Amino acid sequence: LELLRSTVWGSRSMKYRIPSIDEKLARLRDPSFFVLSEKGRELCVFVLDRCSKQLSGTTCNAFHFALASTVTDRQNEGLAGVLIEHVRRSCVSNVGKPGLGFAYVEETTEFSLRLSDQIGHSAAADIPLTLFTRIFPRNHPDVELMKRSERDIVLQKLEQMYAGHELTDFPNSLKPEEVYVLRRNGAIVAGVQVELLQWSMMSMPGTLGTFLVSVLPHLPVLRNILDLKNLTLARFSNLFFLDGHEIQACKLLEGCLYRQNSKVGLILLDRRSPVRQRLQKTGKLGVMSHAVTGSAKMRIDTIGMGEEMMSDLREKPVLISAGDVF
Question: Are 321 and 62 in contact (CB under 8 A)?
Answer without folding.
Answer: no
